[in-house]
Amino acid sequence: MKKQLLKYSMTGLIVTCVLLVSGCATSIEPWVKPYERDNLADPIMSANRNPVSSSYTMHAFQAREGARGAEGGAGGGCGCN
């Protein structure tokens, strides 16, 4: 009885491992297709109410602080742009 239970549990474990490993073999499809990315890059999808004003404010803040981060501010280091 115990030998049969051990056999079934080992078989179940092997089948589970095979299913888990075979799941990694499938190709991963991107959620957003390349031809749909222009819709997501639309300024209306931004969380800001006014992206142009927000960009200018971030640029002025970076120029005042004297440091540039990864926020995407543009312009020269002198603060004149």
Report a brief summary of the structure.
With 81 residues, the chain is mainly alpha-helical.
Describe what you observe in this structure:
This protein is mainly α and 81 residues long. The radius of gyration is 27 Å and the shape is elongated. The chain has helices at 2-23, 37-40, 51-65. It is built from three helices and no strands. The chain is 51% helix and 0% strand.
Task: Kindly list the characteristics that best describe this protein.
81 residues; mainly alpha; 3 helices; 51% helix; elongated
Q: What's the order of the H and E elements?
A: HHH
The overall strand count is 0
Mean pLDDT comes to: 74
How large, in whole angstroms, is the Cα Rg?
Answer: 27 Å
Please write out the topology:
Layout (H helix, E strand, L loop, with lengths): L1 H22 L13 H4 L10 H15 L16
